[in-house]
Design a protein that fits this description.
11 helices
Amino acid sequence: MTTQTLFRPSAPARSRGARWISNATTALIGLIGVAAFLYPFFLPGFQQRGELAAHADDALLIFAALIVLSLTVIFAELESGSVGGASSKTVAVLGVLTAINATLRLVDVGTAALNLGGVSPIFFLVILCGYVYGGRFGFLLGALTMAVGAILTGGVGPWLPYQMFGVGWVGLTAGWLPSSRLRGPRRLKARGQLTLEIAVLAAFGFTWGLLYGAILNLYFWPYAVGSAGYWAPGMSWHQVLVQYTLFYATTSLWWDLVRAVGNAALILLFGAAVLKVLRRFQRRFSFETI
């Protein structure tokens, strides 16, 4: 036995170590995301320079950190499953679904041009895939969809990493829904159970249609200058809540409500069929949830 072989970690040890890295990196991404949205509220001497200047100085750094950490999660998952194993198949599926969903962002350009509100088809796959394949998969699909889609649609700007966090969190929390993943060969057979699933997912999509917009506004709201509905340094938290509620109700609510209805409608119309396909594909290729 050579020295190299003697000190090489066993496959289970490498798998556990890689999965720990994946979990820790995912948690770090979440902390960075929350801090990126909220730090202007806590920064001493923060200067409001107008919403067009929002995060102009730090967006590139946040984007680079998010991409590097997302790739770290992907490589850790590959290592945890041993390349050629279950996790490599998961990553391959992630790549294909990212390409499909990023292409659907072209629809966003049309809906914006027609003033159809915030309706977008990208949330549909992010929610269903996060629900079936796991929250980490859903986060990566959402974040990478926005990154690739921005390149396709010319939507690259300081807002991009915040969109990546927002859509990523949609997929992440979809994986937290109860009974969100089938384990082993079991499948939902009862029509009633599947109907309940679709109803829950539709409500989830509706809620996130509103919540996504409310979160994304925080990307620029602290920088904006105005009177009613705008933030100013030194406000109490009660004043912040009142001002933001006024701002959201008068600027974003209609736009986000259209998105919420669109999410729910897509899930109600196509959710059952797509869930069956996603689960059949998972069983056929025996890849892991992440």
